[in-house]
Amino acid sequence: MMVSWKNSLLGYFQPRLLVVLFLGFCAGLPYGMLIDPLNFWLSESGINRTTIGLLSWITLTYSFKAAWSPFIDRFRLPVLSNFLGQRRSWLIFSQILISFALLGMASSNPNESLGILVIFALAVGFSSATQDICIDAMRIELVDERELGEATAMYQGGWRVAFMISQVATFFIASFFDWSTAYAAAAFLMLAMALFTVKKVPEPERVLKDYISIVNEPVLWFKESYLEPFGDLSKRLKGQLFFIILLVVTYRFSDIVLGPMAMPFYNETGFTKEEVAIITNAFGIMVTLLGAFAGGLFIYRFNIIKTLLTGAILVCLTNLAFAVLDIIGHDLMALTVTIALDNFSQGLAGTALIAYLSSLTNQNFTATQYALLFLLATVPAKFLAGGSGFIVDLVGYFNFFIYAACMGLPAISLSLYFNKRANQHIVS
């Protein structure tokens, strides 16, 4: 049954969704510090494109969080968990670690000690990925299943606002002071969010399994922490498991492959830090928010599969706009149009994918199963993205952008397949 647009909009005005909005903010800030600001900092410091492309693999820490998510799902931090709960204690602990790692990045110089900067960036990535394990579980556990679309949009909204702050504020602070000051400011903001988490974020109500000691019963701990969540996922999705995995793996190929080269492209095309901050970050991220909330409305009014298909088509088509921008060159209006099209499509597609991954999880294994699905959705794409600098050096930006757009064709095909099956099921 189709839901009216009015009811779809009213679905956002629920108090618990504001918590999800804040959780998205917590997740977006540290991730943002590892993307555009770091890439522009490195490019400005004279680091070559191939190295910048390879350093995009730092964010693979987010993808491989499935490796330790069962530990976060089951292990209770001593003392802290008694006062804060299992989820919140891990959340606050990881936020503090992120703050110190960002301060480490602030104290580094890529020209003098690139290796040290990379180590602290990896620490930010690992700590932030641990935070994401908690947040991914909490945003699913705090809402009803029918609210997944709105919750995902709110999470995306908070994430994008924090991402915007990390981009715009960082670029402007770096312009007036330096990059070290910008990263130090992000560290102190992260500490402030940890304090807010203590005060305002509730512990989800869920049934906790009896604690099993990894030391005393390692075999049983491994079985319940790793084998059962993965076995449950395979059992529930067995009929379509292969095609679901293919869709999850290929869905973000197009935008992730393009991502690492965006900042070097802007820099080499002649756009200043201020122009990048205002157009690609401030304006661009506001458009992304519109796309994210449009995705939530589409899911609520139609369904997740139709929204997945729409997002896949839009991302593929709008990535071609970068090829046009390469021809035009330094033109603020052309940049604005390109960013508007690209970011709206990314916002809608991102909401659709996160809602889809969330819908596939069992709340008995929320953190572990979501982390596994997220790994599948990002690791292959990010490995491809690591070679993006090499491809640009080989064929130039124009051909690279065509290549990035074509990488979205498998996701379109698979989304069409699932949409057809859904329509056949409705008819039958």
In CATH terms, the superfamily is MFS general substrate transporter like domains
Order of helices and strands: HHHHHHHHHHHHHHHHHHHHH
Structural class: mainly alpha
Q: Helix count?
A: 21
Overall residue-averaged pLDDT value: 83
How many domains?
Answer: 1
Class in CATH? Mainly Alpha
Termini gap: 15 Å
What would you report as the Rg, rounded to the nearest angstrom?
21 Å
CATH architecture: Up-down Bundle
Instruction: Tell me the number of strands.
Output: 0
What general outline do the C-alpha atoms trace? globular
Strand proportion: under 5%
What does this structure look like?
The protein has 428 residues and is an all-alpha fold. The protein has a single domain (5-427), classed as Growth Hormone, Chain: A, CATH 1.20.1250.20. The chain contains 21 helices and no strands. The chain has helices at 5-10, 15-33, 36-44, 49-55, 60-63, 69-74, 80-84, 86-106, 110-141, 148-176, 179-200, 218-236, 241-250, 253-269, 273-301, 304-318, 320-328, 332-359, 366-385, 388-406, 409-427. The longest helix is centred in the first third of the chain and has 32 residues, at 110-141. The mean pLDDT is 83.
Features:
428 residues, mainly alpha, globular, 81% helix, Growth Hormone, Chain: A, 21 helices
How is this fold's topology laid out?
Elements: H1 5-10, H2 15-33, H3 36-44, H4 49-55, H5 60-63, H6 69-74, H7 80-84, H8 86-106, H9 110-141, H10 148-176, H11 179-200, H12 218-236, H13 241-250, H14 253-269, H15 273-301, H16 304-318, H17 320-328, H18 332-359, H19 366-385, H20 388-406, H21 409-427
Helix pairs in contact: 2-9, 2-10, 2-11, 3-14, 4-20, 8-9, 8-11, 9-19, 10-11, 10-15, 10-18, 13-19, 13-21, 14-19, 14-20, 15-16, 15-18, 16-18, 16-21, 17-18, 17-20
